[in-house]
Known about the structure:
Blueprint: H1 2-8, H2 10-22, H3 28-31, H4 35-42, H5 46-67, H6 76-96, H7 100-129, H8 134-141, H9 144-163, H10 165-187, H11 213-217, H12 220-229, H13 231-241, H14 243-250, H15 254-258, H16 260-282, H17 288-291, H18 293-301, H19 309-337, H20 342-369, H21 374-402
Amino acid sequence: MTxxxxxxxxxxxxxxxxxxxGSSFGQTYFIALFAxxxxxxxxxxxxxxxxxxxIATIGSAILLAQVGRLADTVPLGRLAxxxxxxxxxxxxxxxxxxxxVMLLVAVFGLRFCGQGMxxxxxxxxxxxWFRANRARAVAVAVLGFPVGEALLPLLAVPVIEAFGWxxxxxxxSAALLLVFxxxxxxxxxxxxTPQGEGGGESAVGMGGRHWTRGEVLRSWTFWVLxxxxxxxxxxxxxxxxxxxxxxxxxDYPLATMALAFPVYAGCVVATSFLAGFVVDRxxxxxILPVILLPLGVAIAxxxxxxxxxxxxxxxxxxxxxxxxxxTVGGTLWPTLYGxxxxxxxxxxxxxxxVLSTAIGPGVTGALIDLGIxxxxxALALSAWCLGMCAVFAVVAPRLSRELPAAPTPQAx
Length: 412
């Protein structure tokens, strides 16, 4: 039955995957590959480059909260095409940047279109197109993230070395126009009604109704959940951003630390698929209390003295939490608030997520400048995660009682 589900829905699952894979050019790990070229050509210090990146990311989060609502009123296929075109223009602007101002505008465009809107459209589509098997659909769609993390740096680094960073961004623009744009036009030419899954409009949320974004903002549920939902992107981005710092203060070889990333990607993939099956059967609210537990334990381990194996444990724990969170994050909001206005609701949640990825490196970096190393900050970050586990344990049963009866997962 499971294989039948994937086979029958391969077209729409591929759409979600392509959109999340396409988001890679706007993700931190990809843009960071060009940091050396930016600093050298524009005479930027590490702090100045970090400031540009933070300002651009915060700006993209603010815009996303507004533009993301278009997913409720504009057909997703048309919206995706417009975003890919703007995305390619941003990459082209990056290629032609002559100074810090143009660099900031280009980074803003890449973050908004890539990390923001491409991811947002993918998860909105999965929320709309699936109901009973929504978590398994999300688990497939989010594979684009680890696939990009595993492949694109391997492809980009030799291209940058051979052609330089400017030409490399020209290749990115061309890839978006010649590869991703035709794929989006093809894959999103067919809409989908979640047949056998209860129908799209009947996918109501708590109280048996569809919640508007204003109602969500006035609800205690959203504000209680957000501190826990934002912990993985805040902490995870800080871990990646400060890996060189960790290498220096712990005397870990960077080349050895790099070997942990395939482990990380593999754990994310395996955990997201497993979470897909569990969430479809139990619902996203019931596993909330355990989501942050692996990250909370793993980041605490970083505070302990020891060899480079600690780094592998940290990334493995982060991967377990992120694998669960990407699946739960794609199903939690439509489950709680319904699908009618899900574009606006998810845009709100995604904008907070993007904002957390901007603030995380900045806050932890400022503490490092004050003499508090990242490993020394680890216990406070762990307490954040474990404290939210306790909050979720109290809140999750109440949320579950407010939900309508869930449809049984089917093959269709």
